[in-house]
Structures are given as C-alpha cells and as structure tokens.
Amino acid sequence: MSGDEVKALLDNTWVLVAAVLVIFMQAGFAYVEAGLTRAKDVANILMKNLMDFVIGALAFFAVGFGLMFGAGGNDWIGTKLFFLGDVADPFVFNLNPATFFMF
C-alpha cells in the first residue's frame, strides 16, 4: 500500500468512528428524556426518539444530502445526489461517499 492509500483508509476509519459516536449520542438523549418522564411514558419516549432518528436519516438520504453537497444548481443549493445517485469516488477529502454520507 502506498502512503496515500493508507492515509485515505485511516481518514475513512476515523470519520466512521466519529459518526458512530455521534449516533450513540441519540441513545444518550433517549436516556435523558426517559429519566425525566414518568415510568409509564418511557416506551413512548424511546419510540419517539427512534422515529426521530429514522425519519431524519431517511429525509437526509432522500433530499438533504443532495441539497447540501450536490453539484449543479448554484452556490447555495445542489441539484444532484438525491438518493445518493451518481456519486463520484472519492467524494471529499479522500472519503468514501458512504462514509461521508454517514457522518
């Protein structure tokens, strides 16, 4: 392996670890909310937190990523990469497109 390949591999690994840590923060928020509600409402709070994460991730996958990072359009809004279509590899900073999306 060359030095550039090792650097790209380490960059992807670090960004993926950071993304997993951020996702674990969602569980921490769920614990905080569960601790601040009555015992009978904990299941509802946990389900709301799970749905918040799932719906937010699906909306970002469908529309948000394309608006933020899609080429075309203008400097403010992108018009490509909706549903991660036509992603070039490597995308940004030697990152795999899936890793970049996950973060």
**Biggest sheet architecture:** none
Q: How many β-strands, per DSSP?
A: 0
Q: What amount of the residues lies in strands?
A: under 5%
Number of domains: 1
Secondary-structure element order, N to C:
HHH
Cα gyration radius (Å): 18 Å
Mean pLDDT: 88
Termini Cα gap = 26 Å
Low-confidence stretches: none
What report would you give on this structure?
- This protein has one domain.
- It has three helices and no strands.
- The protein has helices at 3-35, 42-69, 97-102.
- The protein is mainly alpha-helical.
- Helices cover 65% and strands 0% of the residues.
Layout of helices and strands, plus pairs?
Layout: H1 3-35, H2 42-69, H3 97-102
Quick tags:
single chain, 103 residues, mainly alpha, 3 helices
Brief sketch in words of this structure:
The chain is mainly alpha-helical. The chain has helices at residues 3-35, 42-69, 97-102. It has one domain.
